Amino acid sequence: MHNPMLYRRLGRSGLQVSLFSLGSWVTFHNQVDASGVREMMAAARDAGINFFDNAEVYANGESERLMGEALAQLKWHRLDYVVSSKFFWGLDAGTAEKPRINGRNTLNRKYLLQAVDGSLKRMGLDFIDLIFCHRPDPHTPIEETVWALHNVIEQGKALYWGTSEWSADEIRAAYEVAERHHLHKPVMEQPQYHLFHRKRVEQEYARLYDDIGLGLTTWSPLASGLLTGKYRQGIPAGSRGAMQNVSFLRDGLLDARKNAAVGELEAIAQQLDCSVAQLALAWVAHNPRVSSVILGASKLSQLQENLGALSVLPKLTPEVLAQMDAISAPLAV
Ligand code: NDP
């Protein structure tokens, strides 16, 4: 058994989210079927996870449908879980000849209002707890996007809104529009954050945590599996690195210097009596600016192993952190 789940505030909001949460990108529908999703979500909830991350675009809407189906069967109290979705790329984006111009790569008011309704329908929910703008849209005035999200919240269809992979300037601009017009403000960001991807969280956003109370739900804590050590000898069959639909990840997963660094991290993990995946996850969770570390798992056994990171957290002494820094920081962006 591992240490019990911890909970943190989502930035300056009153909402408490589990320090580890469960996401569905790549896995739900593509690798995990309906009964697997239900089983994984039930195990996550048993371990104290209360936040489940999703997006309109994951598996073309199927990920939301599967999560909704599982929630309907699991019948949890609505206060016991927090669900997210994210919007930008759009579903049914049309064809190359006839693109659906107002429904893709946008944060315009029309798309956002229709897209949120679509997500609610697929998930079978009355409201989504957290909605994210999945990427910035330089072609729509930030004021239009902020008003649209404010209206979605006022309609009771979402509770909090935030951004994903926006620049610090864009986040601050959205916050200021909301402040000026007394609208619901962005509460959280969803950035990539792991041992090899650090600068945005640690440097670019540094002022935002205290200035505007920004919370973080961070993604790809294992760099898509690189930080488990499974790519040190090439691409194992059945792994994410072998999947055609995410082939853009392959070069990164096979990066020789990073894989060598993972080998060095493995030596530290051995000393701490844990796996390198648990060590890497504990490292992300150790940063107090992180509200929730979103885990990805294609198998229940991975989720169970990864939750063991809770027991590694107290072992991250300043000496251990300095050793990890020396190995990873020179390779990090
Ligand atoms: P990770 O970096 O942790 O990668 C997860 C994958 O690594 C698993 O699916 C599995 O892949 C492999 N893995 C995990 N644990 C183990 C283990 N113990 N042993 C061996 N292999 C393991 O996270 P994700 O990239 O999945 O991101 C997590 C979540 O973040 C997503 O589900 C999504 O909700 C969110 N996200 C958000 C983004 C955004 O733009 N806002 C972008 C990307 C993700 P396999 O078994 O197939 O090799």
From TrEMBL:
InterPro entries from the UniProt entry: K_chnl_volt-dep_bsu_KCNAB-rel (IPR005399), NAD(P)_OxRdtase_dom_sf (IPR036812), NADP_OxRdtase_dom (IPR023210)
Family: Belongs to the shaker potassium channel beta subunit family.
Organism annotation: Thiomonas arsenitoxydans (strain DSM 22701 / CIP 110005 / 3As)
Gene Ontology BP, a term: monoatomic ion transmembrane transport
Keywords: Ion channel, Ion transport, NADP, Oxidoreductase, Transport
Domain NADP-dependent oxidoreductase: 22-328
Protein name, UniProt field: Voltage-gated potassium channel subunit beta
Listed Gene3D superfamilies: NADP-dependent oxidoreductase domain
GO MF annotation: an example: oxidoreductase activity
Pfam assignment, any one: Aldo_ket_red
Cited PANTHER family: HYPERKINETIC, ISOFORM M
